[in-house]
Specification:
With 298 residues, the chain is α/β, with parallel strands linked by helices. It is built from 9 helices and 14 strands.
Length: 298
C-alpha cells in the first residue's frame, strides 16, 4: 500500500489545481509587512511562497514596508522620532534615512528571491515615474515628506513582468517638483493593484483576518462582501487599526481589483494556504458579483 502521507500530499496538489488554472498569468500584488519582515524564518517562508506563485504561472508583485527598520535606524543615528496624530513626522533628515533603509530592505528581498532561482528587480515608486504624490497632511498639520498617491504610471511594472522579472517595490514617490516622499505601504499596494487591475491583492499582517467580534478569535470571517465590510465598519465592529486597511480593501475592489486577502503573516506559508486551499486561512474580501470559492461548511 502507498503510504497515506504521500496520498495526502497528492490530494493537496490536486486541491490547488483549479486555483492554479484560474489565476494563471494573472497579476497578484503582495503587500509584505509586519512580523514576517522581521523574523528571518517567516521572511524566508513568504519569499518561498511568492516564488512558487511565480513558477506556477502567476505574475506576483511585492510591495514592502519597513517602518520598524526605519525606526531602528533613526534611533541608531541619534535622531529623535517625532509623531503627530500617531503618524511619523518625516523631515528632510528622516526622509534621507527612510529612503536608504527602504532601499536596503528592497535589495535584501531581491537577493532572497534570486537565491531561489527567480529573477527579481527592486525599484522604488520614483523609478519610471511609478508613484506620483502630493503632500499629505494629518488633520491639517504638516507631517513633512509624507505623500498621498495622486497618480500611478505602471508601465515599468508591465515591462518587468513581460520580461519575466518579479518586481519588488519600496513605497517612495515623487511630487511634480521631483521632491521625494515616503508613502504608506498599504496605500502603495492598493494604488498599484488598482492601476494594474490585479486579480488579487494580499496583505500580510500581524492579525488572522477580520472578525465578526474582535474579542472572539473563533469569529474569523473567511469571505466578506464589500457591503458586509462597510457594515462592520459602520457598526463599530472593527478595531481601530483595521479600519483604514479594510477601507483600502473596499476602495481597491471598487477600482478594479477582483479580490483582496488579509492574512496573518506569522503563519508559515500563509499565502499558499489562502490561495491554494478550499477553506483558506485569512479573510477574503470580494465584490457583490464575485462568486464565492469557499465551502463554508468545510
Amino acid at each position: 500500500m502507498v503510504n497515506q502521507m504521500y496520498l495526502d500530499k497528492a490530494n493537496v496538489l490536486i486541491e490547488a489545481l483549479p486555483y492554479i488554472q484560474r489565476f494563471n498569468r494573472k497579476i497578484i500584488v503582495v503587500k509584505y509587512g509586519g512580523s514576517a519582515m522581521v523574523d528571518q524564518e517567516l521572511k524566508k517562508n513568504v519569499i518561498q511562497d511568492v516564488v512558487l506563485l511565480k513558477l506556477v504561472g502567476f505574475k506576483p508583485i511585492i510591495v514592502h514596508g519597513g517602518g520598524k527598520e526605519i525606526s531602528r535606524w533613526v534611533g541608531k543615528v541619534g535622531m529623535e522620532p517625532q509623531f503627530k496624530n500617531g503618524l511619523r513626522v518625516t523631515d528632510a533628515d528622516t526622509m534621507e534615512v527612510a529612503e536608504m533603509v527602504l532601499n536596503k530592505v528592497n535589495k535584501e528581498l531581491v537577493s532572497l528571491v534570486q537565491s531561489l532561482g527567480v529573477k527579481a528587480v527592486g525599484i522604488s515608486g520614483k523609478d519610471g515615474g511609478l508613484l506620483n504624490v502630493t503632500k499629505k497632511y494629518s488633520n491639517g498639520e504638516d507631517i513633512g515628506f509624507v505623500g498621498d498617491i495622486r497618480k500611478v504610471t505602471p508601465k515599468v511594472l508591465y515591462d518587468l513582468l513581460d520580461r519575466d522579472f518579479l518586481p519588488i517595490v519600496c513605497p517612495v514617490g515623487m511630487d511634480d517638483d521631483f521632491h521625494t516622499y515616503n508613502i504608506n505601504a498599504d496605500d502603495a499596494a492598493c494604488a498599484i493593484a488598482e492601476a494594474m487591475n490585479a486579480e488579487k491583492l494580499a496583505f500580510l499582517t500581524d492579525i488572522e483576518g477580520v472578525y465578526k467580534d474582535p474579542k472572539d478569535p473563533s469569529s474569523l470571517i473567511s469571505e466578506l462582501r464589500v457591503s458586509q465590510a462597510r457594515k462592520l465598519i459602520a457598526d463599530g465592529n472593527v478595531g481601530g487599526g483595521m479600519i483604514p486597511k479594510l477601507q483600502g480593501c473596499i476602495d481597491a475592489i471598487e477600482n478594479g481589483v477582483s479580490r483582496v486577502h488579509i492574512l496573518d503573516g506569522r503563519i508559515p506559508h500563509c499565502l499558499l494556504l489562502e490561495i491554494f486551499t478550499n477553506k483558506g486561512i485569512g479573510t477574503a474580501i470580494l465584490n457583490e458579483s464575485e462568486e464565492k470559492y469557499y465551502n463554508e461548511n468545510e
